[in-house]
Amino acid sequence: MRDQNYQHLVRKVTMYLDNELSESAERELLMEIKSNPAYLKVLSQEKSFREFIKSKIHRRKPSPALIQSIKEKIKVTTTA
């Protein structure tokens, strides 16, 4: 697969996984994936990578002081 085509495919797969494709573009991509094992591999790799990231990275909860600070800034902005 040529580098430019590969980058285009990765962009489309990313948009698909982010639910950013139109219905027709999604159908078109899924048909391409069904007909080309290399495309299916790209989709599988991207899904696996996303699952790996989600399982390994833990989000810290914001401190109560940070939450309060944000709320106070919102109040000042809305009352000004």
Main attributes of the structure:
elongated; Anti-sigma factor; 4 helices; single chain; 80 residues; mainly alpha
What do you see in this structure?
- This protein has 80 residues and is mainly α.
- The chain has one domain.
- The chain is 80% helix and 0% strand.
- The chain contains four helices and no strands.
- It has helices at residues 3-17, 23-35, 37-56, 64-79.
- Helix 1 crosses helix 3 and helix 2 (23-35) crosses helix 3 (37-56).
- The protein starts with a helix and ends with a helix.
- The model has no long low-confidence stretch (mean pLDDT 91).
- It comes from Phaeodactylibacter luteus.
- This is Anti-sigma factor.
Largest sheet: none
Distance between the termini: 57 Å
SS element count, helices: 4
The string of secondary-structure elements, in order, is: HHHH
The chain-level mean pLDDT equals 91
Assign a percent range to the helix content: over 70%
Shape: elongated
Please tally the β strands and state the result.
0
The secondary structure category is: mainly alpha
Q: Give the tally of structural domains.
A: 1
Q: Which regions contain 5 or more consecutive residues with pLDDT less than 50? A: none
Strand content: under 5%
List the helices and strands and how they pair.
Elements: H1 3-17, H2 23-35, H3 37-56, H4 64-79
Helix pairs in contact: 1-3, 2-3
Give a brief description.
The protein is mainly α and 80 residues long. The protein has one domain (3-79). It contains 4 helices and no strands.
